[in-house]
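> example.struct
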């Protein structure tokens, strides 16, 4: 096994496993654990109240606590499968019913990223395609002396916003990141020394473009040899020592572990967002960069994509990527119409995640792409 080996061993050795939840997240967890790589038997999906829930999740019966009691032991391993905001209440509900052998697989949790990442890695290897990790490549490659890295530069940015929640976790391990305030043109409040409204910028578009206003600023104003983008709650699990090694390696691009979506990338976008936006994006690709059309179709029909608009890449690749990405986004901005709430108003950022996946799907044989774990700050 590749990622989270200790947890996977626990899953495989457990006498009984049940899922707590019956929604979209539970569907994804069930589908993932039923993949050939895992083949884990699941007794049932448990819920607090049957009302409003399906009778089954991909063939797994949905039961309330009373219905599950004759089937489950109190030491049954329970996997919480839900969005993060429900985690605490679900943990409390389980403990009240005597279930304490619990693993959380909420959407943003690092563990869920690793569990589904194994499926992607296995699928790549079965297709005879490489799956490279940053740690493995830097450990096995013959690298020049670290002092040579000092001749190259790396600008890895962490995007912040004035409305961000306060973080309790110690962020000292990410001291190599450069904080940048996105959307600085929309407020007089300052939380970072560096803001995205100086130099050539599109800071005023932040409500639709999200972290991409920071990306645009980096493209137009940063000159580092390696350039990266993360978020105030999402960070690449990279040490300063690994970053120094990266600067003298032959690695072109560092991406996050791809997100697994059982129903398919296109179908999930249709479910969660505005489908017309997707169609406009596909039209933009056909009009502006038609050679990427096949890669776009493959992504739409596939089950994996690179989420979060996170990356580290060589400067020359960033230049090419942004020169491709932003014309498509500007086209979509002009064409996507209609009233939107604040969430769906972030459509340009949502489209960009899928566009980044299309770009690297198209260039995967050209660039040396490796994967790095991300850490999500939960509180």
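> example.seq
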């Amino acid at each position: 096994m590749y990622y989270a080996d200790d947890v996977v061993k626990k899953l495989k050795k457990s006498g009984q496993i049940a899922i707590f939840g019956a929604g979209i997240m539970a569907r994804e967890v069930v589908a993932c654990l039923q993949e050939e790589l895992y083949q884990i038997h699941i007794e049932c999906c448990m819920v607090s109240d049957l009302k409003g829930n399906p009778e089954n999740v991909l063939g797994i019966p949905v039961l309330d606590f009373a219905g599950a009691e004759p089937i489950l032991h109190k030491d049954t391993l329970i996997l919480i499968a839900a969005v993060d905001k429900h985690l605490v209440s679900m943990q409390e509900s389980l403990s009240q019913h005597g279930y304490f052998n619990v693993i959380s697989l909420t959407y943003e949790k690092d563990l869920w990223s690793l569990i589904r990442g194994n499926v992607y890695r296995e699928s790549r290897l079965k297709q005879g395609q490489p799956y490279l990790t940053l740690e493995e490549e830097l450990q096995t490659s013959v690298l020049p002396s670290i002092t040579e890295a000092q001749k190259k530069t790396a600008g890895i940015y962490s995007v912040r916003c004035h409305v961000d929640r306060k973080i309790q976790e110690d962020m000292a391990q990410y001291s190599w990141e450069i904080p940048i305030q996105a959307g600085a043109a929309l407020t007089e409040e300052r939380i970072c020394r560096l803001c995205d409204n100086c130099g050539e910028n599109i800071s005023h578009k932040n409500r639709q473009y999200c972290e991409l206003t920071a990306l645009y600023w980096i493209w137009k104003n940063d000159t580092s040899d390696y350039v990266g983008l993360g978020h105030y709650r999402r960070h690449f699990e990279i040490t300063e020592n690994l970053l120094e090694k990266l600067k003298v390696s032959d690695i072109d691009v560092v991406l996050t572990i791809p997100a697994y979506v059982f129903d398919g990338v296109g179908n999930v976008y249709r479910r969660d967002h505005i489908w017309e936006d997707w169609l406009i994006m596909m039209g933009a690709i056909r009009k502006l960069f038609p050679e990427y059309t096949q890669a776009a179709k493959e992504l739409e029909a596939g089950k994996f994509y690179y989420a979060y608009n996170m990356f580290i890449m060589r400067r020359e690749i960033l230049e090419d990527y942004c020169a491709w990405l932003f014309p498509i986004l500007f086209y979509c901005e002009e064409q996507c119409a209609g009233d939107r709430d604040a969430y769906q108003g972030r459509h340009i950022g949502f489209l960009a995640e899928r566009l980044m996946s299309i770009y690297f799907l198209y260039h995967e044989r050209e660039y040396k792409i490796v994967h790095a774990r991300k850490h999500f700050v939960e509180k």
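> remarks
The longest strand covers residues 154-160.
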